[in-house]
């Protein structure tokens, strides 16, 4: 029989993250929603706390947290699962603030996924954003046009990246660039670049629909020279392996983004449940939904949708910890949770009526915040394409 109860070690970390969500994030959530681009100073204390927890082995902070335990045998619940539970709980408080926590950027998960041991030692404790998207493309990561040319012992990076989460706050950037345009997907590699490095230019910060506590930047790389050791993974262009090396990053990060959607949707579910019960309706799980008031039936539909997204996301993270191929599962949970996050938060606004649409509650904010979680790290359509290729065992050239 499947046991869905979390181990005690993970329960403790989950409880700590929940305290952060309710006691640190929620009280200042509206403040930073109305003060876009203002740095949340409350996060400095939190970052120090998480660093202490990492040193004590109680948190999956930084890039090192994404590594599973290679030596252990049997089922593992390691860094990926702990990171997932952390973001689920903190996004119950605020998605934008979660994305702004120092040393917990998506670039850190990328480093954890593909860096070798020497690179992990150098970059394991940096705060890394991730730069993939360019003005000429969105979800088609294979269309990267930023170049990295080897010149002696250095790579020279040129190109422009947009929509970089924590692009102005993180101290390093994981940059996707091609080392040989003629070689196609196989030549796309990721490089770790310090933000204050010569040739790195911060162009602007974006104004957004939601996650306003988080900064989103455009950065141009102009003859930016970095040591060749800053290339992560295999430097050789292996056409037989194709894009798999670079795409391995997403196997770690997509479950985390799914977890963000799950956490935000849960916040909306708990808020609307309270409002429904205050209005005098009873949510009865022993009565078929078609025999209950319409508002209760709608709530039960949203809750069951959320439950399936939650379980899919847990499975994808568990597979990553156990070194099982999880590309399909990572895309499945991202597709399901992204869509569920939007439908649940908007559904909660609808059920709450004018109260949900106003700023008297955080329901309208959560509906705005959740939309990006169905877009970045690959849109809904891209996830469905990845899933279809895996299910049908077709290559990207066979199924476009």
TrEMBL record:
Domain Acyl-CoA dehydrogenase/oxidase C-terminal: 240-392
PANTHER family listed in its UniProt record: ACYL-COA DEHYDROGENASE, ISOVALERYL-COA DEHYDROGENASE, MITOCHONDRIAL-RELATED
Membership in a protein family: Belongs to the acyl-CoA dehydrogenase family.
Residue stretches making up the Acyl-CoA oxidase/dehydrogenase middle domain: 129-224
Cofactor(s) listed in the protein's UniProt record: FAD
Keywords from the named record: FAD, Flavoprotein, Oxidoreductase
Source organism of the structure: Dietzia timorensis
UniProt xrefs under Gene3D superfamilies: Acyl-CoA dehydrogenase/oxidase, N-terminal domain, Butyryl-CoA Dehydrogenase, subunit A, domain 2, Butyryl-CoA Dehydrogenase, subunit A, domain 3
Protein name: Short-chain specific acyl-CoA dehydrogenase, mitochondrial
GO molecular function annotation: acyl-CoA dehydrogenase activity; flavin adenine dinucleotide binding
